[in-house]
Design brief:
four-stranded antiparallel β-sheet; Rossmann fold; globular; 13 helices; binds adenosine-5'-diphosphate; single chain; six-stranded mixed β-sheet; alpha/beta; binds magnesium ion
């Protein structure tokens, strides 16, 4: 394949979504889960969709990768990933999935197979991207990836099974699996919501460190404004399949314009306020 000129790659967003609508065919009829959203993610950026449960975040995240079952989901609008229109062309969607774009799933406890070793699963993901590698070469690459996601003594853990790891370690292993495809864009659907608060912080810290090092683009999904505030460049606040408010993360958090965003903010614990009250009382 010929290399794209660097400038055109830098200029066009990794992900460019325009007027995306997604209708789901359900037992109770057709639901318009996503109702005309537009957004972009550029290299090195984290863009977050936030909203309460049922607002359409996962449908958007799965839809842009065309991971929703054909026939049960009807998509319209346009979705370009690294310049290729994946809605117009199913072959383009297959070509970019697991390569240009990778998914970090929500529940680390069930995303890996319990019957194969971590090494087998990570090795397979690496060989999918680099079919010419031998098992030994894939293992060397995999051990390096495990070290990158801060799994200590990765050589000895290559042969371990998922039940031998904690939730936080499994989520870091799943990040390694996602990175095996050498993606330019990561889609992370509530990647830390199944984890304890301290473990959650370490996984988010890892994602941000990875991004600083590799300039990977990230589409983050969360219902937690604390998480969104920490990781995002831009935030889109989603309700009933639409964006009610969009903007730079600081602006959304400091001066939310929409009542729905204010309600989300009110639900976030404010450590600073507690300290001030203590200070005033003493
Ligand atoms: N498999 C499904 N069957 C029926 N309805 C669904 C399904 N998945 C999602 N929906 C509906 O689509 C809407 C958006 O859901 P979802 O994208 O999962 O929201 P979120 O990720 O923000 O919680 C909701 O109204 C939900 O009920
Ligand atoms: Mg969801």
């Amino acid at each position: 394949m010929t290399e794209q000129p660097l400038t055109s790659k830098e200029e066009s967003p990794l992900l460019d979504v325009a007027d995306l609508q997604i209708e789901l065919v359900t037992a109770r009829g057709v639901v318009r889960a996503v109702d005309g959203v537009s957004f972009t993610v550029r290299r090195g950026e984290t863009v977050t969709l936030i909203g309460e449960s049922g607002s359409g975040k996962s449908t958007t995240a799965m839809g842009v990768q065309r991971l929703l079952p054909e026939g049960l989901a009807v998509l319209s609008g346009s979705v370009r990933i690294a310049g290729r229109d994946v809605l117009a062309d199913p072959a383009a969607a297959r070509a970019v999935r697991g390569r240009t774009v990778s998914l970090i799933p929500q529940d680390p406890m069930t995303a890996l197979s319990p019957v194969h070793t971590i090494g087998r699963q990570l090795g397979d993901a690496i060989r999918l991207r680099h079919p010419s590698l031998s098992r030994t070469q894939a293992r060397d690459k995999g051990i390096d990836l495990l070290a990158q996601v801060r799994i200590s003594r990765p050589e000895t853990r290559w042969k371990a099974y998922s039940h031998q790891f904690s939730g936080g370690m499994l989520q870091r292993i799943l990040i390694a699996v996602a990175l095996a495809g050498e993606p330019e864009l990561l889609v992370a659907d509530e990647p830390t919501s199944a984890l304890d608060a301290t473990v959650q912080a370490s996984v988010l810290d890892l994602l941000m460190e990875l991004q600083e090092r590799t300039a990977i683009g990230m589409l983050m999904i969360t219902h937690d404004l604390g998480v969104a505030r920490l990781v995002s460049d831009r935030i889109h606040v989603m309700k009933d399949g639409r964006f009610v408010e969009s903007g730079p993360a600081d602006r959304i958090v400091d001066t939310p314009a929409d009542p729905y965003t204010r309600a989300l903010l009110a639900a976030v614990p404010r450590l600073g306020a507690w300290d001030e009250t203590q200070g005033a009382a003493s």
